[in-house]
Amino acid sequence: MGRTPAGDRRQSQKRKSEGVGTTTTIQSLDQDILCMIFALLDFFDLVRCSAVCKFWNTIVSKSKLLQVFYSKQQRDSMNFLNNSTCSERSLKRYLEEQAMEHNRLCLQEGQIDINQWKGHSVGVNQCRMKMGLVLTGVGDKIMRLWSLESYKCVEEHSVPDMIPVVDFDFDESKIVGLVGTRICIWRRNGQRSIFPSSEGTFVKGLCMRYYDPEAVVGCEDGTARVFDMYSKKCSRIIRMHAGPVKCLSMSDDQLILSGSTLGSITVSGILSDQRVATLRSTDSTGIRSLCHHASSHLVFAGSTAGYTSCWDLRTMRSVWETRVSPNVVYSLQHLRNDASTLVVGGIDGVLRILDQNTGKVLSSCVVGGNMLSSSQNTNGGPEGRKGRRVSEDIRIDTIPRTARPPITCLAVGMKKVVTTHNSRYIRLWKFNN
User: Fold this and answer.
1) DSSP class of 125
2) Is 216 helix (H, G, I), strand (E, B) or coil?
């Protein structure tokens, strides 16, 4: 049966909301005209253009505009241009360093714009961000995948049998979720599968981390259970703590890091199930959040007493410890390649930017100003506010609760942070020059 005109319109609208067709429009521009335009841009605008799509990236790269900028910086143009292998490698490293420095400055000093939209019917308290998409859920038994360009829901996945979602993650092809005492996989094409009952059922799971092809579940009985996504089997059960495993992180070199309500972090091998080390801080309260930086080998933790701590996995020694909040640090994250800043959020509702190497609080941010009315928001998009920075010396209780709802989870991207607050709303913080 052929599609109806109404069906065609719906399909077209869906494609537009998902950004389909954008590449075709971009490629309709003449290459020579694009080169002339690009030649007028400064370095950072040129880098942004190169990230728009493969077509623009190819034009920028072949025109050697970025190489010329780099060679001017290095004051060695002839040597740079005569060694293409070295130039490509050096240019990539240089661009990454410049991008991370730009990101740091924006997080620390930039203007803050906050966009807020209603994402769920009841409170949402989990989010994950990748590839310009953010996955949100926990509360109304629905997980939604949002475009951060259009603020539109591009996918929606329901939880089987109205069982609560505990934790989740996603990649290009699937969503992996901890649902009650089971692992579920939602294919991005809409199909869903559940692990067999003999493999997928376990003691109450409290948290989950997914690193293809394995998902690790932290359980109430102090174990971490490793599941293979393709064989759908539990490959091993690792004893991590005497108490519940409250948070997890996984390293690129096959290590599992788990935080306990008893206040310690256990480092174990994912293949050998042998305990490698136990990390402890002077703060004896429970570990509530964890994240790991692959290139610097640093692990960061947030505690129920508001402390943020850092250890070096190469030496298993403490690097620094700072009390950043009067109460629980629910979430902390950093941009994957950023070795300078760490974003922290918790029950006091203040979004803090920390120096990864020292633990120093670089900036503290809250919501400021009045929300735009629907009449002011003429584009039909999310409501907007300005964020504001506050001094670390300020008494938290003097800041209205409306300006700092508890941050239950956060996800970090380039010059942006997504937060959830156990409310119906999702917030995107944009940090600009």
Assistant:
1) -
2) strand
- Where helices occur in 192-333 by DSSP H, the ranges are 197-200
Is the pTM here over 0.85, yes or no? no
- C-alpha 249/C-alpha 234 separation (Å) is 18
Specify the amino acid at residue 408.
Answer: T
| DSSP output for 383-423 | EEEEEEEE-TTS-GGGS-GGGS----EEEEETTEEEEE-SB
pLDDT tens digits along 157-190: 988 776 778 999 999 889 999 987 888 889 887 7
Per-residue tokens: 43: 């370095």
Q: How many residues does the chain have?
A: 433
Q: Among the ranges 8-12, 69-73, 244-248, 365-369, which has the highest mean pLDDT value?
A: 244-248
Angle, vertex CA 14, rays to CA 11 and CA 19, nearest 5: 125
Which residues make Cβ contacts (< 8 Å) with residue 253, sequence separation at least 6? none
Q: pLDDT tens, 127-168?
A: 999 988 999 998 778 899 999 989 999 999 988 776 778 999
The β-bridge partners of 264 are 280
Let me know: does 116 contact 383? Beta carbons within 8 Å: yes
Count of other CB atoms within 10 angstroms of residue 121: 11
Given this model, what pLDDT does residue 201 score?
A: 59
DSSP 73-114: HHT-HHHHHH-HHHHHHHHHHHHHHHHHHHHHHHHHHSEEEE
